[in-house]
Amino acid sequence: MNVRKMIGTVLGATAMCFASSAAWAQSSGGITYSRPPSADAPAASASIKNRKAQLDPKRDTPESFATYQLMLAYGKCAAGLGNDFVSGILGSPAESRTEKHDLVELQQRVSSCKRTGLTNVMSLQRGVLAEGMYRRANETAPKLPSYGAAKPEYQQFIDLENKRNHLRSAADQTMISATDCLVAQQPAIADRVLRTEHGSDAESSAMDSLFAYASKCAGPKRPEALSRSFLRAFVADSMYQYTKWSAQRVSASKD
Questions:
Q1: Which has the closest alpha carbon to 15: 179, 228, 162, 219?
Q2: Which of 17, 59, 154, 197 could bridge 174 with an S-S bond, Cβ 3.0-4.6 Å?
Q3: Could you give the CA distance from residue 147 to residue 157 in angstroms, rounded to a whole number?
Q4: Predicted confidence (pLDDT) per residue in 79-128, tens digit
Q5: Cα(251)–Cα(25) distance, rounded to whole angstroms?
Q6: pTM value?
Q7: Lowest mean pLDDT among 34-48, 107-121, 162-176, 220-234
Q8: pLDDT at 6 > cutoff 60
């Protein structure tokens, strides 16, 4: 089997799908969350107090940035209080009955964590939990290569994650396959994305760099019609899984 040709075909298809993220956003639609952020939330909280906060796959607003920032705070808290349980959730197939049950149970286990702004959209819940777990395990930026695994190796990672994500919607499968490729090619830049303040210029710049330096995954430019909140959630999910896979691969090579 010509591995190089196979990988090129897979990545080419992924790039075509992810580059048309406007279609993904259109199919996902706007999502409204009925629990508004609290009055003491950070930036933009005043403007969304007593209103329904919205996260739209197609665009960002100061209100949506503030809402997702609150969700990130929940993810960080949950990762700290329920580390092993959260690890189990992220290890289970996405959109499975097990995941759905455990996400509800997690809220009971970490009831002291503020759930302000938390949505029941599972891809976003996975994203904030994955970022919380990744940042907890890596309080400071780890030493990561500017270019990650070699092509045959990161294709193995993508194939494994495709199996974990087989229950997701077609749109979400497209997104996660693309971000799996992005973080496997440029883990250091993906780490930088997750260390920026959500909604900041630094975040936007890091996301642009991720696409530019891993252009074979999804083209050289970040799609304009794609919410940074949604993109960050998928990058976090991919980064958490990639670093676990990479550590296991290194450990196995030493045995």
A1: 219
A2: 17
A3: 15
A4: 999 999 999 999 999 999 999 999 999 999 999 999 877 888 889 999 99
A5: 39
A6: 0.81
A7: 34-48
A8: no
User: CB-side exposure of 59: number of CA atoms within 13 Å?
Assistant: 4
Nearest Cα neighbor of 20 from 230, 239, 233, 221 is: 221
The letter for the amino acid at 59 is: R
**What is the DSSP secondary-structure string of 144-199?**
--SS-S-HHHHHHHHHHHHHHTTTS-HHHHHHHHHHHHHHHH-HHHHHHHHTSPTT
Helix axis angle, 122-137 to 97-109, nearest 10°: 60
What residues does each domain of the chain span? 3-254
Supply 121's token pair.
């959209």
Asked whether 183 and 238 are in contact (CB, 8 A), the reply is yes
φ, ψ for residue 33, nearest 5 deg: -115, 130
Phi-psi region for residue 184, left (φ > 0), alpha (ψ -120 to 50) or beta? Answer: alpha
Q: What is the mean pLDDT of the chain?
A: 81
Q: Encode pLDDT of 147-201 as tens digits.
A: 766 677 788 899 999 999 999 999 999 999 999 999 999 999 999 999 999 999 9
- The band of 4, judged by pLDDT with boundaries at 50, 70 and 90, is very low
Beta partners for 33? Answer: 53
Within 10 angstroms of residue 145's Cβ, the number of other Cβ atoms is 11
Q: Are 67 and 43 in contact (CB under 8 A)?
A: no
Query: Which are the contacts of 111, defined by CB distance < 8 A and separation ≥ 6?
Result: none
CA 79/CA 86 separation, integer angstroms: 6
Evaluate whether 241 touches 148 at the Cβ level (below 8 Å).
Answer: no
* CA–CA separation, 159 and 101 (whole Å): 26
